Amino acid sequence: MNVTEFESVPAVSSDEAPRVGTVVMKFGGTSVAGPERLKNVARRLVAAREEGNRVVGVLSAMGDSTDDLIALAHEVSAAPHPRELDMLISVGERISCSLAAMAINDLGQEAISLTGSQAGIVTDTTHTKAKIVEVRARRIHEALDDGKIVLVAGFQGVSTAFEVTTLGRGGSDTTAVALAAALGAGICEIYTDVEGVFTADPRIVPQARKLHAVTYDEMLEMAAGGARVLQLRSVEFARNHGVRLHVRSTFADGPGTWITEEDERMLEKAMISGVTHTTEETVYRVGGVAAATLFAELAAAQVNVDTILQSGDGIVFSAPVGDRAAAEGVLGRLGVDWSARDDLGKVSLVGAGMRSHPGIAAKTFATLERLGIEPEIVTTSPIKIACYVGLDDVERAVAALHDAFELDRPEAERAHA
Ligand code: ADP
Ligand code: ASP
Ligand code: MG
Predict the structure, then answer these.
(1) 243 has which bridge partners?
(2) At the N or C end, where does the chain have fewer CB atoms within 10 A?
(3) Which residues neighbour ligand 3 (ion) by CB within 5 Å?
(4) Closest CA to ligand 1's atom 5
(5) CA 309, 312, 314: angle at the middle one, nearest 5?
(6) For each of the chain's 417 residues, which pLDDT tens digit applies?
(7) What's the CA angle centered on 143, arms 139 and 148, to 5 degrees?
(8) Ligand 2, from 155, 167, 250: best to mutate by most atoms within 8 Å of Cβ?
(9) Burial 288-321, CB ≥16 within 10 A → b, else e
């Protein structure tokens, strides 16, 4: 059994002592898609301010505008220069924030929009998937002290070499959590286009249930397994800094899902938190190279390796589809025999209760067998079983596992008084 090692997260130092009553509210792309939705977000931020909170809003780019900007770059250049790509795609979040600030001012509250750099988000120098290394929160504190609502452009920062960087797809989640940690906010609210974290992607399994609570470790596995509702790194940050996350709907009131420390009551009724899937990984098979050499080179090329399996002198590993060019570059340079498969998807069953319940693996394999699906690769951690299956089988496998583990029942929600 292999334990998933998630990366350690840097300490974020705030320049000043935390203040009580700070809330960080993050709104995703669908939530700010268009003027009416932006005005709705402005109203939510104003309401939080009028309740007496110090309010920080972190916004994503409007709708699909990040995708549109990336597509535009590729129309101009076959391999856009990473520095320039970051200059381009960091713009989407600035548009949302400045528009929201205008709308808030019209509602009678003062607001100021800040770029990631102005907000003090300092990152390493890796363009398009930079990591936050420090948050210098002084400017935000000053604006909050003045009673302003502060809007921070998500997904971006300034590198230690003074360049504009972005944090990887979904990176506004990480901006929000890092700010919550640095500002000493007790809670970080993630407003999105679904009502919370579900037992499976509700777009694939309509009878999926909204979870009341998920542990940090489960959410890490779910995010790594493709539940894109939270960026993986935001969950690492939240866990390491004890920031409680509340994932909820922008378009409806009512409670969403809490991501928090494990509480026995969560697992009493439902040991499985969900079934996740991703079709965004490439699986490589490599021969004739020492693992130490291969993975050192992949790391140096910023390839985010997920699954690793070694048997005999063969090594199998997976990495995001977006890292394919970098991975191929490494394999080419090493001059080794390799092949890549992009016809596999990963289906993962996640649950902290798995640790103490034998038989989960047996039931998983029996369920897949009934569908005539034989997983190509299986990897596990104490709270996860992940199976790589043919792309065409992914959705069937997710639905069948959801059904087999009875995740459509009310108990799966983990609601407790
Ligand atoms: P935002 O733009 O608000 O950041 P995202 O598109 O990044 O929103 O993430 C929300 C989407 O994540 C949902 O619309 C849903 O389709 C998808 N998703 C995948 N798995 C899950 C899950 N287990 N629970 C909730 N949403 C999920
Ligand atoms: N706009 C960025 C993206 O689409 C960041 C985010 O939405 O979190 O990935
Ligand atoms: Mg997102």
Answers:
(1) none
(2) C
(3) 28, 170
(4) 229
(5) 55
(6) 444 555 556 666 555 555 559 999 999 999 999 999 999 999 999 999 999 999 999 999 999 999 999 999 999 999 999 999 999 999 999 999 999 999 999 999 999 999 999 999 999 999 999 999 999 999 999 999 999 999 999 999 999 999 999 999 999 999 999 999 999 997 999 999 999 999 999 999 999 999 999 999 999 999 999 999 999 999 999 999 999 999 999 999 999 999 999 988 888 878 999 999 999 999 999 999 999 999 999 999 999 999 999 988 799 999 999 999 999 999 999 999 999 999 999 999 999 999 888 899 999 999 999 999 999 999 999 999 999 999 999 999 999 999 999 999 999 999 875
(7) 155
(8) 155
(9) ebeeeebbebbeeeebbbbbeeeeeeebbbbbbe
215 alpha carbon – ligand 2 mean position (Å): 24
pTM: 0.94
Nearest to 212 by CA among 364, 41, 412: 412
Largest distance between two CA atoms of the chain = 68
Q: What's the gap in Å between 341 CA and the centre of ligand 1?
A: 26
Cβ neighbour number for residue 74 with a 10 Å cutoff: 12
**Alpha-carbon separation of residue 109 from 52, 55, 154, 245 (angstroms):** 12, 11, 21, 26
* Pocket of ligand 1, beta carbon within 6 A: 28-31, 60, 170, 192-194, 197-198, 200-201, 203, 227-229, 274, 276
Residue nearest (by alpha carbon) to ligand 2 atom 5: 170
